Amino acid sequence: ALAAARAAAGAEARLADGTRIEVFANLGSVSDAERAVAAGAEGSGLLRTEFLFLDRDTPPSVGEQTAEYQAIADALQGRPLIIRLLDIGGDKPAPYLPIAAEENPALGLRGIRVGLAHPQVLEDQLRAILGVRPIGVARIMLPMIASVGELRAVRAVLDRLRGELGIGETVELGIMVETPAAAATADLLAAEADFLSIGTNDLTQYTLAMDRGNPAVASGIDGLHPAVLRLIADTCRGATAKGRWVGVCGGLASDPLAVPILVGLGVTELSATVSVVPEVKALLATLTIERARAHATAALACATAADVRRLAREFTA
Ligand code: PEP
Ligand code: MG
Q1: Cα–Cα dist 76/89, whole Å
Q2: Nearest ligand 1 atom, CA 198
Q3: Which of 41, 155, 177, 219 could form a cystine bridge with 36, CB 3.0-4.6 A?
Q4: Ligand 1, atom 4, residue with closest C-alpha
């Protein structure tokens, strides 16, 4: 039934040679989901769930969360919905999740670390996602993974809850690649995760050691920096060796200059900002995998982000 609903859900993005690339949209609300469907998105590769948790005194209940996730899944009409677990930290505090003042919030308690430090919050969110029907349409994605142990800890909770709830079906559990550690160990993570999705905003921040919110270093922050591209290449190599797909849900997936390079590096799912979904699909239709691979190889040999951008402009011209 899931497959039939998906097939009916509309145009599948393909390269000119028929290579399949999924084009998904990043969402933060039910209305985003409606806009995404209208724009031709094939699903959501990133639902940022922070909107449910911020600006309130108590965490949302399991029922409240399930209702929101279900409404978004319903708006997607059978298309897959990848729900990212809560990704807040010291820089985005919630009163019911006390986090001591930190000198370096970006390097502190954030992403999956918060869920592991507050097991009830993690368990409630997993329970809420397991409540979405049909089972399997909602997949789970973990932010800020740095170690296989974090993935194992969440999988153990997920398996226990599936047992308690009598859910025999598989519910996919994937991870975000946002730390150089995750990129360097992509093969190890892919052995235990159902998919990998690269968060290029944070991966760029952590690779270049440049705060993504600091205007003094903003001009140096570019996801097309050769160091970031090499980590994306490593991620694709590691995941492909274990038979797992790699997506990109960070800003590079919405950058027309980056898309051919990502595809050439082995990325097969792009989750973009809703407004650029049609442009990304149209751009993919002009590419062949052979040309994209040659272009990516050339990009990997560039010395600077500016060189990569120059090459990318020539490629699309
Ligand atoms: C990212 O880091 O690229 C990402 C998609 O997550 P966020 O922008 O929400 O940190
Ligand atoms: Mg991030």
Answers
A1: 29
A2: 3
A3: 41
A4: 199
**Is a pLDDT exceeding 50 seen at residue 134?**
yes
- CA 145 – CA 113 distance, rounded (Å): 8
Residue to mutate (ligand 1; options 142, 145, 178; most atoms within 8 A of CB) = 178
Whether the predicted model's global pTM rises above the 0.90 cut: yes
The answer to whether the peptide bond before residue 134 is cis (omega within 30 degrees of 0) is yes
Ligand 1 atom with least separation from CA of 200: 3
Pairwise CA distance, residues 274 & 170, whole Å: 28
How does the average pLDDT of the chain come out, rounded? 95
Spatial contact of 237 and 272, defined as CB atoms under 8 Å apart: no
Q: Which residues of 289-307 are buried (b: 16+ CB within 10 A; e: fewer)?
A: bebbbebbebbbebeebee
* Dist. CA 244–CA 237, nearest whole Å: 10
- Could you give the maximum distance between any two Cα atoms of the chain, in Å? 56
Nearest CA to ligand 1 atom 6: 199
